[in-house]
Design goal:
The complex is a heterodimer. Chain A is mainly α. Chain A has one domain (about 1-255). Chain A is built from 13 helices and no strands. Chain A has helices spanning about 1-15, 20-50, 55-60, 60-85, 90-95, 100, 110-130, 130-140, 145-175, 175-195, 200-210, 220, 230-255. In chain A, helix 2 runs antiparallel to helix 4 and helix 7 crosses helix 9. Chain B is of the alpha/beta class. Helices cover about 40% and strands about 30% of the residues of chain B. In chain B, the strands form 3 sheets. Chain B has a 6-stranded mixed sheet with strand order 6-7-8-3-9-10, with helices on both faces. Chain B folds into 2 domains: about 1-220, P-loop containing nucleotide triphosphate hydrolases (Rossmann fold), CATH 3.40.50.300; about 225-290, Alpha-Beta Plaits. In chain B, helix 4 (about 105-120) crosses helix 5. In chain B, a hairpin with a 2-residue loop joins strand 4 and strand 5. Classes of the chains: A mainly alpha, B alpha/beta. The interface of A and B includes residues 3, 9, 10, 17 and 101 of A.
Chain lengths: ~260, ~325
């Protein structure tokens, strides 16, 4: 796996040298910051009203009203931003022809893929770490349930890892970065919105879309519940799309 | 060392190369010559394990390119066509990545990077972004990455394409400097490149090998006899008749400038004094006389047009 480290370093260098990373991160922090601000503002208005309403004050819960919705918001922003980071991973190599270098160095396809995947995971981690100060600010003014915060971050991280795996797959399909990003965004949106059809599909169909939909598995994490079955879902999701990427890359061996 | 056996490759339904076989021995510099679309890049991509053949097989050091892909790739330094590079990396960062990808680590990696930087004249450019380099320097970076980890085989796809004359000379010098040390297979459609660099040439046309030999043997094979260039002040028809009356002379053809002719003859160069005597004794001025073998361009055109003529005859039948 020494090759993975080589690709990881090269890919990290390329990502951090790319304006796409800085533009995406900037927008991510601005939008995430706005969501945090609006969630907190809403809670503070309710808190102010609760000083005159004892019933309301008993029902006020910082975790449920700020932290949980914030992780939901974060996942939406990642849905929009991560395809922009993943779109270039293979598309650019194909477009510029460097894929010929990459595939003629003594590196296996798996090593190359894992190097690229891990470099993008680091980007995700940086983005998530960048939102931790929001929680610290919250802790300065109220008592925060850090268990929920940690489980929320685990959930959003797993969700983002899934987004990246699917994004890498779409990037391997085309040499056009825009097409790769659109395919990635579209596919993620389908996995996201699948659960909306739950009520029309009957008990079996409803249960099926609930199992497949990527967002239903995030919700327990945002409430502080870390359940193995949801971790397994994301692990399978990541493995499946990375596996598909390898299969697609191997297609050059039998195509023609 | 490099063996290609009946290589055939289809892209979809399109046949790119057909039944290509050749062998390259250790230390040879061999040119793969052919017009654009002849299948040169396809052959190189198969040998470098970028893709497999549809039929046939290739091996390097006895290792099959399909079943021992990683081992084969360890032994090859490859410069793809158009020199694809990571433009947002600095020269040294890119070479470090290429070295690591080839399995170099620590001090050995550092030494190798410094060696190829020096060898390719890139030391002063090592901290520049690749996208800011001239085309010639990029070509050098491409060669430098191919030379990393000291591979016994260099495979270069059109190494001088798109360079200016000075840069072409530099890159050719660089390739020549590896003569004897490494086995080099280079593809090109520039004929002088083959004459200057290669000990042996494989000529391709429409995906098939049409000839394989040293440039000299190919020339001798097609030329069949002796060619002499003369520059004479004489009436053209009279000169032609006079020379053709000599036994061993088979043709006298005007060549380029006025008064310049190519005389084709059978046998050795003892015909040349006879030509000179005949001209002088006829009262004409002999301004210049020299041997004029077929150029590789002429050999190439002869082979390619012969092949195409043969194919047309075949299809006509």
């Amino acid at each position: 796996m020494k090759g993975t480290l080589a690709v990881f370093k090269k890919e990290s260098y390329s990502i951090f040298a790319s304006p796409i990373f800085y533009a995406s991160s900037f927008i991510f922090f601005v939008v995430a910051g706005y969501f945090f601000y609006s969630d907190t503002l809403y809670f503070s208005i309710l808190s102010f009203q609760a000083t005159k309403n004892p019933v309301l004050s008993e029902r006020l819960n910082l975790t449920a009203m700020v932290v949980t919705p914030f992780f939901g918001d974060l996942s939406t922003v990642l849905l929009l931003m991560l395809p922009l980071i993943t779109m270039r991973l293979y598309s650019e190599e194909r477009k510029s022809g460097t894929i010929e270098l990459l595939f003629t160095y003594p590196l296996s396809d798996v090593e190359t893929l894992l190097g690229k995947y891990m470099a993008t995971i680091v980007v995700l981690i940086i983005m998530l770490i960048g939102t931790v100060p929001y929680m610290v600010i919250l802790e300065m003014f109220a008592s925060l349930d850090w268990g929920v915060v940690v489980s929320g971050y685990i959930g959003v991280f797993l969700l983002g890892a899934g987004f990246i795996a699917l994004g890498i797959f779409t990037s391997s399909l085309t040499e056009n970065q825009i097409v790769a990003a659109v395919l990635s965004f579209g596919a993620l949106l389908i996995f996201w919105a699948l659960v909306w059809a739950k009520s029309y599909l009957g008990p079996v169909g409803g249960r099926a879309v609930e199992l497949i939909s990527i967002v239903t598995h995030l919700e327990p994490f945002t409430r502080g519940l870390v359940n193995t079955k949801h971790i397994v879902y994301y692990a399978v999701f990541v493995f499946f799309w990375l596996f598909m990427t390898i299969r697609f890359l191997k297609m050059r061996y039998w195509r023609g | 060392m490099i063996v290609a056996e009946s290589l055939t490759k289809y892209y979809g339904f399109k046949l790119a190369i057909e039944d290509v076989s050749f062998e390259i021995k250790r230390g040879e510099i061999v040119g793969l010559l052919g017009p654009n679309g002849a299948g040169k890049t396809t052959i190189l991509r198969i040998l470098t394990c970028f893709m497999p053949p549809s039929e046939g097989g290739a091996s390097i050091f006895g290792l099959d390119t399909r079943t021992h892909s990683l081992e084969v790739r360890e032994k090859i330094g490859f410069l793809p066509e158009n020199v694809p590079l990571y433009h947002d990396l600095r020269v040294q960062v890119f070479l470090r990545f290429a070295g690591e990808a080839k399995g170099l680590r620590g001090d050995k990696l550092q030494k190798e990077v410094l060696r190829v930087l020096g060898e390719c004249g890139l030391a002063e450019h090592r901290n520049r972004l690749i996208k800011h380099l001239s085309k010639g320097l990029r070509q050098r970076v491409g060669l430098a990455q191919a030379l990393l980890a000291d591979p016994p085989i260099l495979i270069l796809d059109e190494p001088t394409a798109g360079l200016d004359p000075a840069q072409i000379v530099e890159i050719r010098q660089l390739i020549k400097s590896h003569r004897g040390e490494r086995t080099v297979l280079l593809s090109t459609h520039i004929l002088p490149e083959v004459s200057q660099l290669c000990e042996r040439v494989i000529i391709l046309n429409k995906g098939r090998v049409v000839a394989e030999d040293t440039p000299e043997s190919l020339t001798a094979r097609i030329q069949r006899g002796m060619r002499t260039l003369i520059r004479v002040r004489a009436p053209e028809d009279e000169l032609r008749n006079k020379l053709l009356s000599l036994k061993r002379i088979t043709s006298v053809m005007p060549s380029g400038a006025r008064g310049q002719f190519i005389v084709e003859s059978i046998g050795d160069e003892s015909i040349r004094p006879l030509i000179a005597r005949t001209i002088v004794e006829s009262g004409w001025d002999l301004m210049e006389m020299s041997g004029k073998d077929l150029s590789l361009e002429e050999v190439f055109m002869h082979l390619v047009t012969k092949e195409e003529g043969g194919q047309q005859e075949g299809s006509g039948q």
